[in-house]
Amino acid sequence: MADGSKRCRLLYPTQISGQAPRSNIVRWLDQLCTWLDQTSLSQTIQSTAWVVPTVQTIHILSIAVVVASALMVDLRLLGAVGADQSLKRVSARFLPLIWWPLLVLFVTGVTMIIGEPAHSLKNPMFQLKMGLLVAAMMITGIHQLMLGRDLAYADSETGPSRPALLIAILSMLAWGGIVVAGRSAASLGAWIAVVAFGRWIEFTLH
Prior knowledge:
mainly alpha; 2 domains; two-stranded antiparallel sheet; 2 strands; elongated
């Protein structure tokens, strides 16, 4: 069995000389990392060569679906894509492709965390990714809430409304940041998948 405690300490030293003692959160992450690494499920994932690559592939494809769908909604909010279609129609088409694949992302993400806890839980980029994901979900929820109150809230006589511009820009920044915050190879694969899926969606809109 792999020494999870040692691996976590090697990746994340307990305390650097001259620095203040670690916070309770850091100690809790150390303990959680060690516990996860020593579970039978984690050991099985680590010892089965095909699990992590397969799960990561599914994770990347799910990210592509979510990000490309969010991008289509954002571009419609900006009036750049699907301007001849109502916001309600575009949202009804793509919002389910944001929410449902998030369940797949959750399952695959948890699997990768359990399999490699030392490379995830205390990684600043992973923490940034999780923060951006929460923000992106909140922005998408705000869009749905505003759409429920006013089906044409994004449109005005002079172009996209200010709320629509704000939501679209913040959404693109959040979802784009999520992709960038991923691992380099995974990020590249996600960007390629997003572009391919986005082009297919754009084709189907016409």
